[in-house]
TrEMBL record:
This is Olfactory receptor. PROSITE patterns: G_PROTEIN_RECEP_F1_1, G_PROTEIN_RECEP_F1_2. InterPro entries: GPCR_Rhodpsn (IPR000276), GPCR_Rhodpsn_7TM (IPR017452), Olfact_rcpt (IPR000725). Its main location: membrane. GO terms for molecular function: G protein-coupled receptor activity; olfactory receptor activity. Belongs to the G-protein coupled receptor 1 family. The chain crosses the membrane at residues 26-49, 94-120, 132-154, 198-225, 237-260, 272-292. Keywords: Cell membrane, G-protein coupled receptor, Membrane, Olfaction, Receptor, Sensory transduction, Transducer, Transmembrane, Transmembrane helix. Residues 41-290 form the G-protein coupled receptors family 1 profile domain.
Length: 318
């Protein structure tokens, strides 16, 4: 589409990770397998928590929300990427690109905030167990999660509105496997200083605040655990907290490398690989780190699977 002497771009070309078709097909199969594992693990959490009234508590309410957000986060890009590779289609419309940016940022921010809330929930449960029911009642938790959704959507509407005002009149080739802020800003022929400022200030605030909350919560948890005289209790607590923090480091380390480092340090190879870590690997690990190692969750899933098997057997006998 032409506007004056400029050709305004109405669609983009997503190059993916590699130019080689063989490597692209291999990656599509690998990512599809990881995506299916992620969906299965998180769906089991949602199913197990929903079907067992014993698990209708604040901690499991947050975990079920995290599972739902993880599915949505990865679903914003992996299915389309796999279809594009298998069909040989690499284009995405401008409107489709903005839509993908909006939902991707929404779910990524919500994922970060929920991990912070889960850390705070564990802090209250371990450091102030007598006040847990008053501080973390289910009604308050529902209001908290609803408030987090509002904050993330307002933040993401700002980014999407700022992106929509930009003009793209040069190259339409994105060296990535999905639409993201930085690759789009590089292609714009408009002044992107406001967008960059919004990314650092608003994005930094929304990323830094949960990270500080997580570190403070686990700091108090470690301090409390060290006072436990039981060696076995210490080992279990440190093992659990260590696993949680490893996911936090993976998520924040790779996402910070993409969004909060100088543009000169970004490369077409590094940014997509970093994005894979915090948008696919972390959501795939979350079910195993936060829930599926839990004894109560294992019992709930066993009951649910037994009910499902009995139901199928009854239907076959009819």
């Amino acid at each position: 589409m032409k506007r004056g002497n400029l050709t305004v771009i109405s669609e983009f070309v997503l190059l993916g990770l590699f130019s080689s078709a063989e490597k692209q097909h291999f990656l599509s199969i690998l990512f599809l397998c990881m995506y299916l594992v992620m969906v299965l693990g998180n769906m089991l959490i949602i199913l197990g928590i929903g079907s067992d009234s014993y698990l209708h508590s604040p901690m499991y309410f947050f975990l079920s929300n995290l599972a739902f957000v993880d599915i949505c986060l990865t679903s914003t890009k992996v299915p389309r990427m796999v279809v594009n590779i298998l069909t040989g289609t690499q284009t995405i419309s401008f409107a489709g690109c903005l839509t993908q940016v909006f939902f991707f940022i929404s779910f990524a921010n919500m994922d970060s905030l929920l991990i912070c809330v889960i850390a705070y929930d564990r802090y209250v449960a371990i450091c102030h167990p007598l006040h847990y029911t008053s501080l973390m009642n289910l009604h308050l938790c529902v209001q908290l999660v609803a408030g987090l959704w509002v904050v993330t959507y307002l933040h993401d509407l700002l980014h999407t509105a700022l992106m929509a005002r930009l003009s793209f009149c040069a190259s339409n080739v994105i060296h990535h496997f999905f639409c993201d802020l930085n690759p789009l800003l590089k292609l714009s022929c408009s002044d992107v200083s406001i967008n960059v400022m919004a990314t650092f200030i608003m994005g930094g605030l929304l990323a830094l605040t949960p990270l500080i909350g997580i570190l403070i919560s686990y700091g108090f948890i470690f301090s409390t655990v060290l006072k436990i005289t039981s060696t076995d209790g210490n080992q279990r607590a440190f093992s659990t907290c260590g696993c949680h923090l490893s996911v936090v480091v993976l998520f924040y380390g790779t996402s910070s490398a993409v969004y909060f480092t100088p543009s000169s340090s970004h490369t077409p190879q590094r940014d997509p690989l970093s994005a894979i870590m915090y948008t696919l690997v972390t959501p795939m690990l979350n079910p195993f780190i936060y829930s599926l190692r839990n004894k109560d969750m294992k019992k709930a899933l066993q009951k649910t699977l037994c009910k499902g098997r009995n139901f199928i057997q009854r239907q076959l006998n009819i």
